[in-house]
Design brief:
With 418 residues, the chain is of the alpha/beta class. It has two domains: 3-19 and 231-417, Alpha-beta prism (UDP-n-acetylglucosamine1-carboxyvinyl-transferase, Chain); 22-228, Enolpyruvate transferase domain (UDP-n-acetylglucosamine1-carboxyvinyl-transferase, Chain, Alpha-beta prism), CATH 3.65.10.10. The protein has helices at residues 22-30, 48-60, 86-89, 99-106, 125-133, 164-174, 190-201, 233-245, 261-269, 307-314, 333-340, 371-383, 394-397, 403-409; strands at residues 3-7, 13-17, 38-42, 63-68, 71-75, 83-84, 108-112, 137-141, 144-148, 156-158, 180-184, 205-207, 213-217, 226-228, 249-253, 273-276, 280-284, 294-295, 320-324, 344-348, 352-356, 365-367, 387-391, 413-417. α4 runs parallel beside α6 (164-174), α8 packs parallel to α10 and α8 (233-245) runs parallel beside α12 (371-383). The N and C termini lie close together (6 Å). The structure holds ligand EPZ. Ligand EPZ binds next to α1, α5, α6 and α12.
Length: 418
């Protein structure tokens, strides 16, 4: 299994270009199931998770062609299977995103329960309750969800709490339902707005995406469209934190500043210089990092997917900071690895971390546990004294395109060891 070796101490300098957003591409590629015809996706990131959903769609019978780097053509016309198998779903939980489109298009879907992951149990009860509200009958047997409906009927759906893929699944399902649906307490992430815009380009009638109330007027069918994937706001935030932590000066290009207000505000509070332009952001680190408190929340609050990266920054801040992880129940696994690097962190009742800043981190062999934890360990390696070796970097390859190449171009001493 690959490892990443980092020799710390370089200040990141220069320019980096952000890739397409994994968490926008996944639901958009799944939406191809709803359409008979070829959809052209551009600015698609080259990631493990994208390959996983492509394999899943091909297993269902869709035709997927990589026309050129970043350009993926998907034709759902030939889909002849409605079962998403365990050995494909277990590789990526987001495979649950085929459930809504399959039952909406074919009246039948069989998808393996996605199961949990390192950061939490990750239930899908809200996805299933929403489909039942649309008239589907749901059964769960031998680890598989089976959903059936002659035709979904529009209805009101109320989410107990905002769920990103739950909102996406049900927004896709309701586009082909009979009549009107209203999704209340919907998630408001930019990836949901992007999905709604794409579905409307395909002929759907969705209003309110990006707010807590989304209305969908069902239509009989959707048609192909050309879709460009939006920039990855979490990759953007990750490079912003890396620039600040290394006291660097980095211009992050091809990003969407409007999607990361929460990250910008918190990074400025730590003393970093952050300048925003139309499609780029400049981050200049300050010699002393101020300690700040963070609470993760659904969008537009501070994103849980940036919590681990910020924790690394706080380990070298000039005081005490508190991080409250309010979205997932077990998203501090990276803290144990940071402790091995000399950080001073204590966790109380699972979702509150108290961090006392230390002068510097020490390099050490560490292990990635999940996608964003791997990013926090990379940032730690960049600032630690000595040579850090990160194992299980397959977690990172799921969501960061060529991160060691991008960091090397910014002056980091980083390489992949296979
Ligand atoms: C999406 O996961 C993202 N994944 C996650 O990014 C992200 O961390 C998360 O949203 C929160 O922003 C994709 O978009 C592919 P949720 P999702 O449903 O949709 C609970 C990454 O690093 N819940 O918004 O699975 C759930 O347990 C990944 O790229 C239920 O209880 O997250 C959690 O506590 C990690 N029942 C909360 O809601 C449900 O039916 C929010 O989860 C669904 C969710």
């Amino acid at each position: 299994m690959d490892k990443i070796q980092i020799i710390g101490g370089s200040k990141l300098q220069g320019e980096v270009t952000i890739s397409g957003a994994k968490n926008a591409a996944l639901p958009l590629i799944a939406s191809s199931i709803l359409v008979n015809g070829k959809i052209n996706f551009t600015n698609v990131p080259d990631l493990m998770d994208i390959r996983s959903i492509r394999l899943l769609l091909e297993d269902l019978g869709a035709e997927c062609n990589v026309l050129s780097p970043g350009c993926l053509e998907v034709d759902g016309s030939a889909i002849h299977k409605i079962e998403a198998q365990y050995d494909l779903v277990r590789k990526m939980r987001a495979s649950i995103l085929v459930l809504g489109p399959l039952v909406a298009k074919f009246g039948h879907a069989k998808v393996s329960m996605p199961g949990g992951c390192a950061i939490g149990a990750r239930p899908v009860n809200m996805h299933l309750a929403g489909l039942e509200a649309l008239g589907a009958t749901i059964s769960i047997e031998h680890g598989y969800i089976e959903a059936k409906a002659d035709r979904l009927i529009g209805n009101e759906i109320y989410f107990d709490m905002p769920t990103v893929t739950g909102t996406e699944n049900l927004m896709m399902a309701t586009t082909l339902a009979k009549g009107k649906s209203i999704l209340r307490n919907a998630a408001r992430e930019p990836e949901i707005v992007a999905l709604a815009q794409a579905l409307n380009q395909m002929g759907a009638k969705i209003e309110g995406a990006g707010t807590a109330i989304i209305t969908v007027e069902g239509v009989d069918k959707l048609h192909p469209a050309d879709i460009k994937i939006i920039p990855d706001r979490i990759e953007t935030g990750t490079f912003m934190v890396a620039a600040a932590a290394t006291e660097g000066d980095v211009l992050i290009k091809g990003c969407e500043p409007d999607h990361i207000g929460g990250i910008i505000s918190k990074l400025k509070a730590t003393g970093a210089l952050v300048e925003t332009f139309k499609e780029s952001i400049r981050v200049k680190g300050s010699r002393t990092v101020k300690s700040i408190d963070i609470k993760t929340l659904p969008y537009p609050g501070f994103p849980t997917d940036m919590q681990a990266q910020f924790m690394t920054l706080m380990t070298i801040a000039n005081g005490n900071s508190m991080i409250h992880e309010s979205v997932f129940e077990n998203r501090f696994i990276h803290a144990n690895e940071l402790l091995r690097m000399g950080a001073d962190i204590s966790i109380t009742n699972g979702n509150l971390a108290s961090i006392r800043g230390v002068k510097e981190l020490q390099a050490a062999p560490v292990m990635a546990s999940d996608l964003r934890a791997s990013a926090s360990l990379v940032i730690a390696g960049l600032i630690a004294k000595g040579t850090t070796l990160i194992s299980r970097v397959y977690h990172m390859d799921r969501g960061y395109e060529a991160i060691e190449k991008k960091l090397s171009l910014l002056g980091a001493d980083i390489k992949r060891i296979t």
